[in-house]
């Protein structure tokens, strides 16, 4: 009897235990291992001994790290902002339509998110290539001079923002559209009966009711873009010079090109803290408790 009661009380825990152990092994253990390694000199995996906060001090005194953080935040905020604004506009537009046209628009908008990130970026790299790219092919056909985008620092940053936004517009659109479909039509009809116009219905009813999917989409896209390594690596390679050397590329090169694993671990901890700051800021800004 006691065994059956004990099994009944702890059955849920026993069923979730394998998943919890897997999460601990994949997420928690590497996190604490990285934190531990950040206090040691581990060049080329050779333990040079405990150095305390020297790795962090070295990062804070390096202008390249500060620049990488700055350009990463700029690209992240700009691309996520474009994705959310256009996603909201497309979602509001599709919400007023039904039938095959609405499904096709959703399908086309979601394709950049579901296709391989590498494939999509390679296609953009080919289209914008200065010598053999599709864009310059059409420009030459029309009698214009070719545009060498990846030799300009400003153009490279803008292009990276556009490509990262293009990849995520469909995700924000679908998430916001799902929230709009859950809005009670009775509230909208009552507002219109009371004389509310389209803008008032949007700002006072629809947007407050869909703030949860907006918040979640913003957090997901911000984290995705901030930690994105594939798109910058394939599209610009961090160039020209260090113009698009985002923090994920700096972290990758520090660990797997220069083999400075102690400093790379310290930088990983800083990147993790910045991710947490982003989440807290968004939750505070929207004044909503998850």
From TrEMBL:
Please indicate which superkingdom the organism of origin belongs to: Bacteria
The portions of this protein that span the membrane are 12-32, 65-94, 101-127, 133-150, 157-180, 261-283
Domain ABC transmembrane type-1, chain residue ranges per copy: 69-282
User: Gene Ontology cellular component?
Assistant: plasma membrane
Q: How does this chain sit within the bilayer?
A: Multi-pass membrane protein
Q: Which Pfam families match?
A: BPD_transp_1
Any Gene Ontology biological process: transmembrane transport
Which keywords fit this entry according to its UniProt record?
Cell membrane, Membrane, Transmembrane, Transmembrane helix, Transport
Q: What subcellular locations does the record give?
A: Cell membrane
What Gene3D superfamilies does its record include?
MetI-like
Family, according to the entry, reads as follows:
Belongs to the binding-protein-dependent transport system permease family.
Q: Which PANTHER family match?
A: ARABINOOLIGOSACCHARIDES TRANSPORT SYSTEM PERMEASE PROTEIN ARAP, BLL4140 PROTEIN
Name of this protein: Sugar ABC transporter permease
């Amino acid at each position: 009897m006691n065994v059956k009661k004990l099994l009944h009380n702890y059955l849920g825990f026993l069923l979730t235990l394998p998943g919890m152990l897997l999460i601990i092994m994949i997420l928690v253990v590497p996190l604490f291992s990285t934190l531990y390694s950040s206090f040691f000199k581990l060049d080329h995996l050779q333990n040079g001994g405990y150095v305390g906060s020297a790795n962090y001090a070295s990062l804070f005194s390096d202008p390249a790290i500060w620049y990488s953080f700055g350009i990463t935040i700029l690209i992240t905020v700009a691309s996520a902002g474009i994705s959310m604004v256009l996603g909201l506009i497309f979602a509001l537009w599709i919400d007023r339509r039904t039938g095959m046209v609405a499904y096709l628009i959703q399908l086309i908008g979601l394709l950049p998110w579901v296709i391989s990130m590498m494939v999509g970026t390679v296609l953009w790299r080919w289209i914008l290539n200065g010598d053999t790219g599709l864009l310059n092919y059409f420009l030459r056909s029309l009698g214009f001079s070719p545009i060498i985008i990846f030799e300009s620092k400003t153009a490279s940053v803008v292009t990276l923002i556009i490509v990262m936004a293009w990849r995520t517009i469909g995700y924000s659109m679908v998430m916001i559209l799902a929230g709009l479909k859950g809005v009670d039509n009775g509230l909208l009809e009552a507002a219109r009966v009371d004389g509310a116009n389209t803008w008032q219905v949007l700002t006072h009813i629809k947007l407050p009711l869909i703030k949860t999917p907006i918040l979640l989409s913003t957090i997901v896209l911000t984290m995705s873009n901030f930690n994105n390594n594939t798109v910058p690596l394939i599209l610009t390679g961090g160039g020209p010079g260090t113009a698009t050397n985002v923090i994920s590329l700096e972290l990758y090169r520090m660990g797997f090109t220069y083999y400075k694993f102690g400093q790379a671990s310290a930088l990983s901890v800083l990147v993790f803290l910045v991710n947490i700051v982003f989440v807290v800021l968004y939750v505070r800004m929207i004044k909503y408790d998850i």
